[in-house]
Write a structure and sequence with these properties.
Elements lengths: L4 E5 L6 H14 L7 E5 L5 H8 L4 E5 L16 H6 L4 E4 L2 H6 L4 H13 L3 E6 L3 H5 L3 H16 L8 E4 L13 H16 L3 H6 L1 E5 L7 H5 L6 E4 L6 H10 L3
Parallel strand pairs: 1-2, 1-8, 2-3, 3-4, 4-5, 5-6, 6-7, 7-8
Bound molecules: 2-phosphoglycolic acid (PGA).
């Protein structure tokens, strides 16, 4: 059985005081939830404080993006080595906001994914379709292409050390969650696509659903066969909500 995993994606929210309070409450409210993995992906400037607060606890941490380059003249960028300096375990790559607002394409995302793994970080690879693409009935094509871009560059074997997050763009931050069946259908498609390369990895890989997961819809989503947890945006900023979602992920 795959272990459930809940990761918070704080996006560009928070400040030192708020983060500390939030994590104090999350730590307290999730202290008995040891059957699932819990992590928070935070803005870069807070990594040091978060490392200090979370080290030796049951909660892991990571970043929301990373440079595909090792080092050099890349003003404003942050490298995998820097993330390692602050004890990150995870890094989100290819979030739809990075793709849509910052022009990251599947090739760049694949390079970031490779850089993360090379440094021993676990990439949380985000893939998902827009509303227009869903209505145009090309969800599988879009998600398949996003996945294949990584498989082509990094090899299917690399998926063993990654997490996939299926995040339909139309469900992110909109309050419009995919139904458990809609999410399950795409998760099943992704798992089958991976199985075409390697059945062991397909059965072992952790696949998260993301897009308006809340305390009151998490259980039914996580109960679906191919959904192993969630990538949580808005609800990860409220301690009680995030803890309740973590609770829904107990196997
Ligand atoms: P949301 O964000 O939970 O606020 O919809 C999810 C995400 O963007 O990862």
């Amino acid at each position: 059985m795959r272990k459930k995993f809940v990761a918070g994606n704080w996006k560009m929210h928070g400040n030192l005081a708020h983060n500390q309070k939030l994590l104090e409450a999350v730590l307290k409210n999730t202290t008995n939830l040891r059957q699932s993995e819990i992590a928070v992906c935070v803005p870069f400037p807070y990594l040091s404080a978060i490392q200090a607060q979370l080290k030796n606890t049951h909660i892991k941490w990571g970043a929301q993006t990373v440079s595909e380059y090792d080092k050099g003249a890349y003003t404003g960028e942050v490298s995998t080595e820097m993330l390692n300096d602050f004890g990150c375990k995870y890094v989100i790559v290819g979030h739809s906001e990075r793709r849509a607002i910052y022009g990251e394409n599947s090739q760049t995302v694949a390079l970031k994914y490779i850089a993360a793994q090379k440094a021993g970080l676990i990439p949380i690879l985000c893939i998902g379709e827009t509303l227009e693409q869903r209505e145009g009935r090309i969800t599988e094509q879009v998600v398949g292409e996003q996945l294949n871009a990584v498989i082509e560059k990094a090899g299917a074997g690399s998926l063993m050390k990654s997490v996939i997050a299926y995040e339909p763009v139309w469900a992110i931050g909109t309050g419009k969650t995919a139904t458990p069946q809609q999410a399950q259908d795409v998760h099943e498609f992704i798992r089958k696509s991976i199985a075409a390369h390697n059945t062991t990895i397909a059965s072992k890989i952790t696949m998260l659903y993301g897009g308006s997961v809340k305390a009151d819809n998490a259980s039914e989503l996580f109960a679906m066969q191919d959904i192993d947890g969630g990538l949580i945006g808005g609800a990860s900023l409220v301690a009680e909500d995030f803890a309740a979602i973590c609770e829904a992920a107990q196997n």
